[in-house]
Amino acid sequence: MEKGVFVTGSDTEVGKTVIAGAIAAAMRAHGLDVGVMKPVASGAKEINGKLVSEDAVYLKKIIDSSDDDDLVNPICLKLPIAPTIAASIAGVPIDVDKIWKAYEELTNRHDFVVVEGVGGLMVPINDTLFVADLVCKMDLPLVIVCKDYLGTINHTLLTLEYAKSRNIRIKGIVINMLKNGDDFVREIEKYSSAPILGTIPFKENVSVENCAYGDIVEHFRREINISKIMRK
Ligand SMILES: Nc1ncnc2c1ncn2[C@@H]1O[C@H](COP(=O)(O)OP(=O)(O)OP(=O)(O)O)[C@@H](O)[C@H]1O
Ligand SMILES: [Mg+2]
Known about the structure:
Distance between the termini: 5 Å
Low-confidence stretches: none
Strand content: 15-25%
Number of helices: 10
CATH topology: Rossmann fold
Number of domains: 1
Order of helices and strands: EHEEEEHHEHHEHEHEHEHH
Structural class: alpha/beta
Bound molecules: adenosine-5'-triphosphate, magnesium ion
């Protein structure tokens, strides 16, 4: 069995949190002890003097995680901009050791850890590391989330090519917020070197901001064969 999965996106705001949450909840429903992680978050809210990542809150809540916030989200930055720029403005360098230690602890605690990336694979984490380097160091396979919008085919194929160039294993692609039906799916399928794991439509009752899941987990479990993600 895999020890986890890294959920990346063709872009920011494509549904990484929603799909990472659905994977984590589906694994839990399968009987696994699951952990979640958002190693680096930007655009955090300040609550009682503490920075809190909306993504980490959503991911924790969907699996009833009792792991500490610092473990689930070791790097939390206030400004909703690229992490290196947010860290530079905050005057606090990103401490990658905190990420490795938190990841190690979570993998020791849980059967399976679902990690949500930040933006896409080539988002810089510091002067020498990109998100793809986190994936390599964590030694996790990828699920690539893309959203049905103009530009996605390009972004998705570029993400796949870059992952392949880094020898990252790819479980497949989840097409989120599908609106145009089969043509879009067929086009991605035609040019993609990785399988499409499934599609998820836009759902009125799903919202990361409001921690609302609607029936996303049930839908995900019906649509996507999680054993393909779970098995080595
Ligand atoms: N299938 C869906 N149906 C309805 N709304 C969705 C769906 N998927 C995502 N959303 C909404 O779209 C927005 C972006 O989704 P999400 O936060 O999961 O993206 P992300 O890739 O994790 O973004 P970020 O790069 O900021 O982490 C959120 O407001 C979320 O509630
Ligand atoms: Mg997110």
